[in-house]
Every structure is written in structure tokens, then in C-alpha cells.
Amino acid sequence: MSTFGRLLSSIKGPEDIKNMTFRQLDDLCAEIRRELIGTVSHNGGHLASNLGVVELSVALHKVFCSPHDQIVWDVGHQCYTHKLLTGRYQEFFSLRQENGLSGFCRPEESEHDSFVSGHSSTSISAAFGLAKAKELMGDDSYTIAVIGDGALTGGLAYEAINNAGRSKSKLIVILNDNKMSISRNVGSIARHLAGIRSKPAYFRLKSRVEKAILKLPKAGVKIENGIIKMKAGLKNVLYGNTIFENMGFAYVGPVDGHNLRVLCDVLESSKEIHRPVLLHVCTVKGKGYIFAEENPKAFHGTSGFNIGTGNTEHADYSFSKRFGTSLCTMARTDTRICAITAAMASGVGLNEFAHQYRNRFFDVGIAEQHAITFASGLAKNGLLPAFAVYSTFLQRGYDQIIHDAALQNLKIVLAIDRAGLVGEDGETHQGVFDASFLHTIPNITILAPSSYDELDSMLKDAFYHYKGVVALRYPRGEQGFIPQDYHSQKQSYTFYGDPDAPNLIVTFGRLFSEACLARDILNKNGKAVCILKLNVVKPMDPSVFDKVKNFSSVFFYEEGMQEGGIGQSFGFQLYQVGFKGKFSLHALPDQFIPQSTVASALTHFGLDAQAMAASVLQGEKTVE
Ligand SMILES: Cc1ncc(C[n+]2csc(CCOP(=O)(O)OP(=O)(O)O)c2C)c(N)n1
Ligand SMILES: CC(=O)[C@@H](O)[C@H](O)COP(=O)(O)O
Ligand SMILES: [Mg+2]
After folding, report:
1. What is the pLDDT of residue 421?
2. Where along the chain is thiamine diphosphate bound (predicted)?
3. Is residue 377 part of a domain?
């Protein structure tokens, strides 16, 4: 009988691997990889990043004592092995599903998840804060941040290194260098890391050096007064100084991140350095699954796939792709048009643009703040930049939008992808705040296409019709249901349906499709309804209110936060013009929205067609 899987299923917590032999741990890593591939092939998830850190995760839990020693995973998309080792094997089948395990670190899920994660480059700041707090409370445990080379392109990481570098904290930063962000990693830091990895002298001496180092006690790290004497001397010959040493960290590495014995030795050694350490670990993204190793970009975040063929199940077309195509078309005739991404070229549909217009394409790394100020600079000197960004990551650049772009009334286009609910990534990734946080800023126009055709025409308007910052927001995935007799118009709003009906559904973006489906349901029930679709969400065209005033019941639906959202503002303005009917607002409540399919969340929060139809049928209480 096969015993494969026995080791993993026997693990109730990290203490269960402490006494395993390296041979057993090697077997455990194989079992973990099989589990990762099996589960992600069903549920989707961040496969390649997780396959790359199996040995690192095992080594960390062998050497350190979580949760006392705290591990902070940057982004957290690579924490699946950590979950399997910290008592969550039995629930792992529910990964990323409604009410299931999160695909990121969630302190409420486990005491071993020391800090919430999802957005990039936070780990060193968080870990330094955790470490300082423990120090002040007389707790001498370790704090470990695990950060990828992609996440290291985010400015927050350097703010943290700058701050921590002069401390004596028991902070160990593990740099997981796989040369990849989602796409190939970019920028000077990627080049610096490549330099460290690839100095010819290093390769020539590599095996000799490793042997020499391993022969010495504690993996060759000879420590005097907290300084790694021998290693520093040796390394200086080989590489010169690293940026990390220049910023006050002890640098250890680079080491093979798939060699458990070396990893455990080096981690043990790092414990004895009484100041912040940066341990540079080299891994292969996708390690152990041929399709992911060959195409780590496709398996960074994947939908379900066939294990045997590596074929994924996802829709071929999306708003993102349409945006990319449309931008390419416009860039052909207007050489001022440029595209910016913060390390999300594939996700936002810019691969083709990058290919066709290399000089006008900028992947700035995971640096949303910089992207916006950089775009503002381009705009100031006459170019037409579009920054394509997920709604959730745009949150990073709030002040830059206000201070660097809007205040100067600069024409930058914010192509806001994943606006609205995103599904399985859950709380950290929902795009439910942008409409609320943008519509209070002067000099901004917010456009909300509901179809691919509208995206095309609004993108054109964004560049050539409106002044100042233009935010064009569209959802994750495909266009929804658009009735054949609906024709996009260039006005700031469109009425569709029976203009004499007493009931009016008002909405924008993706929910227009739900409203059209609701109208069909209502018509079948003999109830007439009209729909008002807002094309320009901000500034609101004042002429709309005199028209809306004539309906007796107005139902506003918004796939975003109710508090401070578009609907609240709309309702207020409607009452200002003397509306006497009923106004009811349906939007997301004041809570973080958990993971589930988008369809399920729309149903849960009363934003789908059935809920809309039911509300109209039942009538609603007036919201004062
Ligand atoms: C602020 C922010 N911007 C963008 C992302 C999207 N994102 C998630 S993982 C990732 C790449 C991270 O690369 P790296 O840290 O090297 O991890 P790897 O997947 O290579 O292990 C990006 C761009 C994010 N999570 N947060
Ligand atoms: C971890 C992360 O932030 C990204 O990988 C994100 O999960 C991508 O989401 P999409 O699947 O919507 O592109
Ligand atoms: Mg990486």
C-alpha cells in the first residue's frame, strides 16, 4: 500500500516536523507539491509562487517556533505550504472558496498567520513593527519577513529597510529571488540581484565556496560581535557590497532555496546575528510542475486546470483584453499615448501594447504611487499616459492622484480594472472602494462602461474629450448581458426601458446587465420598469435629476461601498431637487467583503437581477 501522503496528513502543527529527518522532509516536500497541484487544479490559485517556496516554508517551520517566532509572508500568495504545516491540511480542499481557507494570510484563520496580507511589499514594515513591539515587551523571539524579488520593487520595502537597518532587532528578512514578479521582474533592483547571483567569480567558486562554508560551524558564518566576519570578507571579494549591507543589514547568501539542509543551516546561523539580516534565497518559480516551471507567468495565479496537460479553464475574452486592444489601436495614430503598469501587464491586458510599442510602455514594478506621479510627469510634458491598474492596488496611490495629478488638472487616464467584486481573492482584492474615494476629488471624471463597445468609446473620450484626470472603471472578466435593443450612447446617462413606468432602477458598470435581466423578470410579472444607466458617474449631469424626479420609486444599485458611495450622493442630490417619491439604496455594507464567486456575492448582497426584481415587486421603504 502506498504511504505517499502519510507524512503530510500526520502533521497537526509545525512541531510535528521538528523531529523529522531530512530524508523524511524531502518526502514531505514531494507530498506537499502533489497537494498544492491537486488543490489548485480544482480551486485555482497562486500555484507557481507556492511551488517555489515548499522547501523554504518547511525549513522555516523546522528552524523557528511559530507562532512565537512570527513569520510574515509578503503578499501572502505563497503561504499555502505554511498553511499545510500549521494545522490546516484537513481544510485545504476549501482553499479560496466561499467560507473556506483564504488564499492569503489571515490572522483570524490561524495564530500562525501573524499579519494580514494580499497587497505587496508590506512584510518588512510589518515584521519590524512586530519585532519592536516584542522587544519592548521583553520577548526575545524572532520575526521573519519573507519577501519576493517582485515585492522588493515596492517603495514601502525600502522605507522599512531604511528604518530597520540601524536597529539591533531580531529581524530576518528572507528575499525569495526567483527572477520573477508576475512577469519577469524589472528595474535596477532586479539587475542588482542578477549581479549578485551571476558574477562569474561566484559561479566559478560556487561549489568550493559552499563546501567551505558548510564545513565551518553554523554554515560558515563566523560571528564576532554580531558581525559575520568570514562571510563578509569572502563575499566582498566576490560581489562587493550589496544594497542591503549599505542600508545596515547583514547580508547572507545567495543560497539554494531548494536545498533543505543548506536552508536550515543558514537559518540557524542567521539566528546568531544580533542585528537585522537579509538572507538571499534563490528559487525556481513553479518548481516541480513542468508546466508551471516552463510558464510561471501563466501559473502565477491560475484558474482550475488539467494536471496532465496544464490547460487552464478561463474565458478567452475580457474587459482587460479589450482595453489592451483598444489602446493599441489608438496608439497607432497618436504617438503621445503611453501605457503604464505596476507589474500587472498580463492582468490588465497590456502584453500586446508592450510588444508593439516598447518605448511607450512602462512597467514600473510594484510601485503604484510612483506610477501615478510618473504619469503626471509624462502628462505635464505633453504625453497622454494611461495607467492600467487594478482597483484595489490603486488605493496605494490616493495622495498621488490628489496632489500630483488632480491638483494640476493633468490629463492622465486611470484604466481601473477589476472594479467591483473580484471573487476568490477576497477581502484584500475587492475593487469596491475606488468610486467612493475618487468621486470626492476635484478635476476627476469617472466613466463606467458596461460593454466592450462602451469601453472603446469611453477610452477615446477619456483621451480627447474630458479634461483632467479620467478614471475609466470596468470589472474583472467578461462583459455581461446587454440586450440587443440597447444601444450605447455618448451622453452622460442613458434611460432604457419604459419611460412611463413608476419604478426606476439606477445603476452603472457591470450591474447594468443585472438590471436588464431584472427588467425581463419584472416584465414577465407584468410590471414595467425603466433603467437609468450612468455612463459618467462623476461629475453627475445635473439634468438627470429633473428627469428622475418624475418616477415614484427609485432603486439605486451600486457594486461598491454604500458609505460615501455614488448612490448616497445621487440620493442626496435627488432630494435637493424636490423629489417626493421613494429612494432606496442597495450597495455593499460597511464591512470587508469575503471571498466567494462574484455571482454568489452579488446574490448575498442583494445586487443581482433576482434581488433587484424582488425589491421592485415588493416596493421599498423610503430612505430619508
Ligand atoms: C500593491 C500590489 N500591487 C500588485 C500586486 C499584484 N501582485 C501580486 S504577487 C505579484 C508579484 C510578486 O512577485 P514576487 O514578490 O517576486 O513573488 P513571486 O510570485 O515571484 O514568488 C504582484 C505584482 C499586489 N499584490 N499588491
Ligand atoms: C496575488 C495578487 O495580488 C495577484 O496575483 C492577484 O491575485 C491577481 O488577480 P487576478 O486573478 O484577478 O489577475
Ligand atoms: Mg519573484
Report:
1. 98
2. 77, 118-120, 150-151, 178, 289, 368
3. yes
CATH number at residue 469: 3.40.50.970
Same-domain check for residues 344 and 421: yes
624 has pLDDT over 90: no
SS3 call for 283: coil
pLDDT > 50? residue 225: no
Whole-number mean pLDDT of the chain?
Answer: 92
Contacts of 355 (CB under 8 A, 6+ apart): none
Say if residue 139 carries a ligand binding annotation: no
Mean pLDDT (whole number) for 402-429:
98
Q: 3-class SS at 490?
A: coil
Residues 172 and 287 in one domain: yes
The verdict on whether residue 560 carries a ligand-binding annotation is no
293/353 Cα distance (integer angstroms):
25
Residue 68 in marked binding region: no
Please tell me if the CB atom of residue 396 comes closer than 6 angstroms to any atom of ligand 2.
no
In contact, 459 and 413? CB cutoff 8 Å: yes
Q: Are residues 535 and 456 in the same domain?
A: no
Annotated binding residue 77:
yes
Residue 403: which H helix or E strand, with range? Answer: none
Q: Is 297 in the pocket of ligand 2 (CB under 6 A)?
A: no
Residue 219 has pLDDT above 50, yes or no: no
pLDDT in tens, 62-113: 999 999 999 999 999 999 999 999 999 999 999 999 999 999 999 999 999 9
Residues with CB under 5 A from ligand 3 (ion): 148-150, 178, 180
202 alpha carbon – ligand 3 mean position (Å):
21
Contact yes or no for 182/300 (Cβ under 8 A): yes
Find the domain containing 56 and state its range.
Answer: 6-294
Question: How many angstroms separate the alpha carbon of residue 77 from the centre of ligand 2?
Answer: 9
Sheet holding 143-148, edge to edge: 70-73, 143-148, 171-177, 277-282, 250-256
**Model pLDDT for residues 495-507, shown as the tens digit of each residue:** 999 999 999 999 9
Which residues have C-beta atoms less than 6 Å from ligand 1? 49, 52, 75, 77-78, 119-120, 148-151, 176, 178, 180-182, 285, 300, 342-344, 366, 368, 393, 396
Tell whether 306 is covered by a domain: no
Same domain? For 76 and 161 the reply is: yes
Alpha carbon distance 319, 474 (integer Å): 7
Instruction: Write the ipTM.
Output: 0.99
Q: 14 in a domain, yes or no?
A: yes
Residues 379 and 458 in one domain: yes
- The per-residue pLDDT for 1 is 56
In 3D space, the residue among 175, 120, 177 whose CA is nearest the CA of residue 145 turns out to be: 175
Say yes or no: 257 and 352 in one domain: no
- How many domains is the chain built from? 3
Label residue 544 by pLDDT band (50, 70, 90): very high
Task: Mark whether 43 and 134 lie in a shared domain.
Answer: yes
Among 294, 310, 331, the domain boundary falls at 294
Beta-carbon neighbour count of residue 96 at 10 Å? 22
Residue nearest to atom 1 of ligand 2 (CA): 77
Q: What is the CATH number of the domain that holds 563?
A: 3.40.50.920
CA of 595 to the centre of ligand 3 (A): 25
- The reply to whether 484 falls in a domain is no
Looking at the structure, do residues 264 and 356 belong to the same domain, yes or no? no
Q: Which of 261, 279, 294 is the last residue of a domain?
A: 294
